Amino acid sequence: MRGKFITIEGTEGVGKTTNIQFIQDWLKAKNLAYLCTREPGGTPLAEQIRDLLLAPRDELVCDTAELLLMFAGRAQHLNQVIEPTLGEGAWVLCDRFTDATYAYQGAGRGMCADLISELELIVQGSLRPDLTLILDIPVEVGLKRASERSDPDRFEQEKTEFFELVRNGYLNIAKEDPERCVVIDASKSLESVQREISIALEAFWCPSEESG
Ligand code: Z5A
Fold first, then answer.
1. Whose CA is nearest to atom 14 of ligand 1?
2. Which residues line ligand 1 (CB under 6 A)?
3. How far, in Å, is the centroid of ligand 1 from the Cα of 17?
4. Which of 16, 120, 196 best tests ligand 1's pocket when mutated (most atoms within 8 Å of CB)?
5. Least buried of 39, 45, 67, 137, by fewest C-beta within 10 Å?
6. Best substitution site from 11, 12, 18, 78 to test ligand 1's pocket, by max atoms within 8 Å of Cβ?
7. Is 187 within 8 Å of 144 (Cβ atoms)?
8. Domains annotated on the chain, with CATH
């Protein structure tokens, strides 16, 4: 049986990295074989593309170049890691995926959603995540958390208005696909956030357990 594909999304400093460890503990407790990965990145080539994308630079990166680099890395990641792992029956937990492209390049940069969905079809075919956890937080709270952690990368140098657009982009995705997406209030305490994540994972797990 194919594995399940779980993605975790959200704006800056929302707590994805922190909560991925919690989700891995849940997968281990269920005795599920899984692989944890991230985008951009996830293979040596895709990690190099990630470095190109995140490095602050003097040259303006045009929106189309950014979009195509995101999908170039994704094609490699899918081909080398995600598809083979799911095919072997293991679950894949991915820190960001194509919803980030709709939110950042689509809603944030203003790129056409139809163009993104054409590239999505070319690169992914019919593959979509089975469950997406969208951690939601007021932009200024997330930026404050992120700024206390490390120097800003090229995306983190964007203005607050950009991240407001990205946040709305994510909330619209959740509205349009409520079967797949669960929005979690990430401004609460870590304990409360993880309780909500756990509820979402258990609700997702039960139907798949019955059908399996
Ligand atoms: N990008 C894109 O544009 N298009 C795409 O298609 C894709 C990506 C796939 C890299 O992503 C960039 O790529 C990203 C979008 C773009 N833009 N940026 N920037 P990334 O996922 O690697 O980068 P990130 O969003 O900045 O993630 P992050 O820096 O790793 O943040 P995080 O994982 O969400 O947060 P965290 O490190 O877990 O937590 C931040 C701090 O908050 C930390 O000190 C925690 O201890 C603290 N924290 C976490 N939760 C809580 C709670 N509940 N209470 C209090 N404090 C908390």
1. 155
2. 10, 12-18, 39-40, 54, 70, 95-96, 100-101, 104-105, 145-146, 149, 153, 155-156, 186, 189-190, 193
3. 6
4. 16
5. 45
6. 18
7. no
8. 5-211 (3.40.50.300)
Other C-beta atoms within 10 Å of 57: how many? 9
Q: Which atom of ligand 1 is nearest to the CA of 18?
A: 38
pLDDT in tens, the chain (212 residues): 999 999 999 999 999 999 999 999 999 999 999 999 999 999 999 999 999 999 999 999 999 999 999 999 999 999 999 999 999 999 999 999 999 999 999 999 999 999 999 999 999 999 999 999 999 999 999 988 888 877 888 998 899 999 999 999 999 999 999 999 999 999 999 999 999 999 999 999 976 554 54
For atom 28 of ligand 1, the residue with the nearest CA is 13
